Amino acid sequence: MELIVFDLDGTLLNRESAISIYTSETLRLLSEREIAYTVATGRTLHGARAILEGHRFELPQAFKNGVMIWHPEQQRLSSGAVLASAELDSVIHACLRQRVTPFVFTLDEDEVSTVYHPSLQSEVERELIIQWVIEENVIARLLDDLPNGAIITHVSAIGPSEAIDAVFRSVEDQPRLVAYSGIATEGLRWRWIDIHHSDANKGGAVQKMKEMLGLERVICFGDSDNDLSMFQAADESYAPANASDIVKSVATAVIGHHDEEGIARFLRERFALDT
User: Fold this and answer.
1) 112-145 pLDDT, tens per residue?
2) What is the DSSP string of 169-236?
3) Which domains are seen in the chain, by residue range?
4) Coil, strand, or helix at residue 140?
5) Global pTM value
6) Max Cα-Cα span within the chain
7) For residues 32 and 130, what is the distance between their CA atoms, to the nearest angstrom?
């Protein structure tokens, strides 16, 4: 038995960040053939919930690059490796040195996500907080209110490219931290960064989900650097034509473009879903 694992943005989703009608129909065919599938994404649960709804995603799902696993049947979250206070202090100082705001995400025992932050420094940061609060149901509080012993899942930031690159360099050599960065939707001069414990990644989450479900093999699809650990954990890994060069170089094969339903077309052929 196999488990198919999809990245979302740039992979299963089209350029409108949606599951197309053709892809939705493909997922229905997988479900009817009892072929197991799930997601491992950099998005938060709340940021992906509306996208996944109605497409038969019923198995455990990995969010925030494997930091959290959502269990739909039990309606609960479980967290992977979390940041210790010393690691958090290092990340906060790295951000503040570059004049970007660190957003510290926590998860409480009731699976409520709260983001703590110091004073905001740009309009883009203010808009980001509003988006999280409204669209992702996150509670926002000042960093001074962060309680001792909080479960810290990750730290995010957004800022000018040169500042985010400097933050990335300052944490990349720390053995217990891992950072992912990319171009922000706010414009080419802006970049985002997510930083979390090195033991929390898509690869580890995929391995956990495989064991939970008692499945033997994993087939995964992804396009970005944060998918590399998932590729290493999989038996087969496929990159859409729009993937980064490093992802393509380690993939089992390169398939169709994400905005041309490349993943869905590959799956229909791979599993003979049209017959």
Assistant:
1) 789 999 999 888 899 888 888 877 778 999 999 9
2) HHHHT-TTEEEEEEE-TT-TTEEEEEEEETT-SHHHHHHHHHHHHT-SEEEEE--SGGGHHHHHH-SE
3) 2-79+200-270 (3.40.50.1000), 85-197 (3.30.1240.10)
4) strand
5) 0.77
6) 60
7) 39
